[in-house]
Design goal:
The structure holds two protein chains of two kinds. Chain A is an alpha/beta fold. Chain A is built from 14 helices and 13 strands. Helix content of chain A is 49%, strand content 17%. Chain B is mainly α. The longest helix of chain B is centred in the first third of the chain and has 49 residues. The chains are: A alpha/beta, B mainly alpha. The interface between A and B is medium-sized, with 23 and 23 residues.
Chain lengths: 330, 353
Amino acid sequence: MTASLETVQAQASAFRSTFDRLKAEIGQVFVGQSALVDHLLVCFFCQGHALIEGPPGLGKTLLVKTLSDAADLRFARVQCTPDLMPADVTGTNILVETPGGQREFVFQRGPIFANIVLADEINRATPRTQAAFLEAMQERRVTVFGVTHPLDVPFSVFATQNPIEMEGTYPLPEAQLDRFFFKLNVPVPDVADMAEIMARTTGERETRVARTVDLETVRSMLGLIRQVKIADGTVRLALTLVRATHPDAVEAPAEVKQYVRYGASPRAAQAIILAAKALALIDGRYHVAAEDVRRVAAPALNHRLILNFHGEMERVTAASIVERVLATSG
Amino acid sequence: MSAPGIELVGQTLLETVARCRRRMQLVSAARRAGITIPLAIVAVEVVAFATVLAPARLVMLTAVAVALAAIVATIPSILRAPTLRATAAAIDTRLRLQDRIVTALQLVNDGDPMARLVIRDAGTRLATVSPNRTFPLEAPRHFRAALGATAVTTIVLLVLTSGSGRFWLNPRGTSNSTTGAGAGAGRSGRSARPAADAQIVQGASPPASEPRVGTSNQTATNREDAPVGRESVRTETGTAAVARGSSAPRAADSRADAPGRDAGSAAGTRDAGRGATRFAERTASAAGGVNGAPASDRRRAEGRATPATPPVDPLYRDQYRVASARAQTAIAREHVPTRLRAYVKRYFVAIHP
């Protein structure tokens, strides 16, 4: 029992230090946006997928690339275009000739088999290709020609999309949006951060990211998050938040009843609780606090709310609705 | 930390939370008492004002009311005692422990290493926690308003009763009638006429009778040049009564004999002559065998500033003292209905030298 306590304590301590090192390394390249980096790392350690949304040029791709570099993980990037085929993502069987002179089909793995997959501008891919990501994201396996291939651990898809150029795009369906653990918005950096970016990118100095953690270390940490304890009341808070996004729920505030067509699914509650556990570990605790739940509620709920006609006409944002839910619940 | 050590921490955690719960109950009761006790005092004061309580009874009633208010404040704290979980949540909130205690409380019987770490963490935090400091006695939200209401009520009642001394009207401490000259004087803030026989006459005042005196005598004497003003009218009345002797008794008698006349009527008729004296004698004997003052026409002269008014007869004053003392003794000793007791008192007020 004593060894177990110390082991868990050591693992928790290692988790914190690893998180801090990763964040520091990412900070070497990606300037500012501390909350964004936190959420991205939480999403990664929770084995979730993130949809990163922001205008071009804000470093969405750079952020994900830096993470894979710092963690020494296998990284694959898929630039989504309308002519991208599902097989380009998952891989396909190709005919090869064996040393014995025979010909047989061999499965050629696609980029989805990496540890970190960057689906750049995912909304430019056709729905068929988007659906190829679907099974991989949810089931963590790929089925090609009737053969199922499990994906590697860890596995996270970080998709980006540009919210301002919608022509020629295929907006992600609600079912697919729900499979993203977090939706992270990349804001425009302030002047100080932009000055730092200019200093780093227009000077002679070249910044390199050190590999701070290896694959095995990351794998050992993944299970630790799920061991974190959470009180019943805190679970109820998370569930109340999710319930409050449904217009027909008694917990829903007036704004939800007025502007929301569909609320968040139970997956949102799963994401909130899991992410809150990760935040608790990062904060040096072995249990989840209510404030952890509140901190991760916005990125977990933003993309899971579907506004109704009135909401869209009045340009109400899901973020403002979630803020209202947070203010009125618990 | 070993497993028994963790169990000890868990036990200590439970005990601390239980102590905090008892403290929360106490604080809750005290907060309620901060409202109920001032309200009870206000209620007692209002009741005392309405029923004219003796000081001893007032003190006793206040003590009873305060005790009842304390009990009323305590009962909800006992019946609706916070659960251990609610107490733990309150501790977390007060000490900003980020749900440590409430989580640890839930995991007390959990053998998982992570759960034991949570318990140990919570136990460490709670080791230095004092329930008294965590849940200090605080004034309730409307405590100042309640105190203010109590203070205002007390001051108002003191002001209203200081002039007339209502609480000292009844030496036996029984409730008194709220009608009559005494009560009217007390409420209107008029001061009582200074009296040598304090207990029997203090608190009663003649103003209710004075206008009638003037009016009746003006009517009786049919004076058109009657001076304006209460005291002037009284002076004129007294002068007229003394000067004319038996010219007015008929009118006065008719007023005195009429049923339901109050002290004012009695006073007015008394000034007029023998009819009033007889009336006074009758009412006094009805009230307990007190002899009325036969020289009621003379004793009026003492309180008047008019040079024409004759001085007060010392004999009348002595008789008044003896009679009022007898009446007071009789009232204190015998069971006299409240209404009649007040009637006697008003009578003595009216014939006060």
